[in-house]
Specification:
The chain has 363 residues and is an alpha/beta fold. Helices cover 48% and strands 15% of the residues.
Length: 363
């Protein structure tokens, strides 16, 4: 039996191809939703939109400090594992759910016979080499306690080997985000027309996402980023569409930052956002997932961070890591607007979910 442990919306999206592959193969599996960011009730629409099976277990741990949240997930996952006794636990990415899920499995033994539960880490080997990021700590620790490391690229595999992880544990599968984008874009186009609903045209707007704590919670950084976006809007006379994350919206109000030159809209469902992303002229973001998605969709990207764990996007010419200084963001936008969209997707062929299931069956 396979236990698929997830807790955030990006994990639901990136695990959806694995879930679909498990269902297609008739695998014995269940889904455990930790509720790291939202309750299952808040995330129900994601499972319904993506037409994937609903979780059998819900922990609803909610927010809190890293220690409180990780501890609550660890205890909750351990209890479910003792009840269900799966052979393997699959986690994805770099969240507190990933660390706690992997840790609970690696420390758990099936009561009958003392057999250890194995851990599979989907999207293993990503590195920003910035230990100030909680996500970097989570992904490194998860990799080092996993039995199956599903690396999306050769670069990720090299990182794992450089850290002394046995090559026998590492499998290059491609990134499930390619599967997810392709599968779910078909769903999106059959259900919604977000671009036209917002009165926009293809390649006639910029798309922005900002949610990371280091950007949203720092007045100087956030003000500078909004200033850069305002300048870009005026310079190119194209609307800047900004689905505002709740944390960012709260801090914009708290800091009294003027966003009148930017078109802010409420957060979107994944299918709506994916369609909006697919027709944007340029994406400006601090999200790792958007860096990947825009690269796959042939949409130029500017990353508003000091580092990235997706260097493949930069290498192929799909992305520039601009930092957070306004002048650098503006210059990076100008550069990417001149870029040809002829890069090759570096994240695989769109069959990562199937490949992961095949590997688990063959080992």
């Amino acid at each position: 039996m396979i236990a698929i442990v997830l807790g955030t919306r990006p994990e639901i999206i990136k695990m959806s191809p694995v879930i679909r592959a498990c269902e297609a193969r008739g695998e014995d599996f269940f889904i455990l939703h930790t509720g790291q960011h939202y309750s299952y009730e808040m995330d129900r629409v994601f499972f319904e939109e993506l037409q994937i099976r609903k979780p059998e277990y819900n922990l609803d741990v909610g927010s809190g400090t890293h220690a409180m949240q990780t501890g609550a997930i660890l205890a909750g996952v351990e209890k479910v594992l003792h009840e269900t006794r799966p052979e393997i636990v699959l986690v994805q990415g770099d969240t507190n759910t990933v660390l706690a899920g992997a840790l609970a499995a690696s420390k758990s033994y099936v009561r009958s016979g003392g057999k250890q539960i194995q851990v599979g880490h989907v999207e293993a080997g990503l590195r920003s080499f910035d230990r100030r990021m909680p996500e970097e700590i989570n992904r490194v620790l998860a990799d080092h306690i996993s039995d199956y490391l599903f690396a999306p690229t050769k670069t990720a595999r090299r990182h794992l080997l450089n850290e002394g992880i046995s090559k026998e544990k590492i499998f290059i599968t491609g990134n499930t985000i390619v599967d997810a984008v392709r599968q779910n874009l078909v769903l999106a186009k059959s259900k919604v027309d977000t671009v036209r609903h917002l009165g926009l045209g293809k390649d006639a707007y910029f798309l922005v996402t900002l949610h990371r704590q280091e950007n949203a919670d720092n007045k100087a950084r956030l003000s500078g980023i909004i200033s850069a976006l305002t300048t870009i809007r005026k310079k190119y006379d194209l609307p800047v569409i900004f689905p505002v994350h709740p944390r960012t919206e709260k801090m914009i109000r708290t800091f009294g930052i003027d966003t009148s030159d930017i078109r802010t809209i409420p957060p979107l469902g994944f299918l709506e956002f994916l369609q909006l992303e697919s027709e944007a002229r340029l994406a400006l973001t601090d999200s790792g997932g958007v860096q990947e998605e825009s690269c796959i969709l042939s949409v130029p990207c500017v990353t508003i961070r000091d580092s990235t764990e997706r260097p493949e996007t930069v290498k192929v010419g799909a992305n520039i890591v601009a930092g957070i200084e306004p002048d650098r963001i503006i210059a990076a936008a100008a550069s990417m607007l001149d870029a040809k969209r002829s890069w090759k997707n570096p994240f695989g062929d769109g069959h990562a979910g199937e490949r992961i299931c095949e590997i688990l069956n063959s080992c």
